[in-house]
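Contributing new records

If you add data, match the layout below exactly. Sequence lines come first and carry their own label; structure lines follow with theirs. Keep one chain per record. Anything else will be rejected by the validation script.
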Amino acid sequence: MNLALALQLLIQGILLGGIYGLTAVGLSLIFGVMGVINFAHGQMMVIGMYISYWILVLVGLDPYLSLPLAAGAIFILGYVIQSTVVNRILDFPEAMQVLPLVAMGLILENLALLFWGPDHRSPSTALGLATFTLGTATVDVSRLIAFSLAIAFTVALFLFLKKSAIGKRIRAAADNRLGAQLVGIKVNRINNIAFGLGAATTGAAGALLLPLMPVSPHLGHDFTTTAFVVVILGGMGNLLGALVGGLILGVTESLATLLLPATLKQVVSFGLLVVIMLIRPQGLFGGRR
């Protein structure tokens, strides 16, 4: 085995895994609070990528600097979807919860297709080609920045949920919805904020991914699938598990290219998913089965 190549792939996997973790944190948060799986998750991330792309083209603002704008815009989108659609279906059977969110994903995908067309867009950014060496490995500066910001965003969200008054209300509503209502918490409004926060993480992840890969309206399904794998790997509803699961998936996919063609990346992802579900169905950080 080429150790230099393995080190290079390990570094790339860790850097990509941080973004995978941020991608899945929002999905895990939404499920943990409301018990609803957001099937429009990937499409929201694509909209976040296009918002950053639009800002870059029109204003010249780098995606790393426009990240708060993309996250804020997707927060508003998530808040609106939760208040108008999801709050009305929370008590529906799970099979009936799926279709409205799948429909929202298709609507967002077709809106992106309408506004930006079907072509892939790959903008050039200031740090797009910047690299530095770490021993025998070469580190992509844009990936390192994206990884660092993804970890920082995830930690900030975790601290917000733990320390802030709104975060404590969100955790109370997630733990016992009826009890939260009895002590005066406006659960529907808290759900709106929680869904918005989960959506905002997808907008942030979209901004971080824009310098790393071309964007097109049809990427949402792949992002949703990846987020599902990470969330199940880490444990449904567990934010720390989502972050660790993202790192594990990123490293596994990257190192697997030593033995398999890169085109078989999804085989590795779903193979890992099957193994985890057979051995530990609740995920690495999940509660009891």
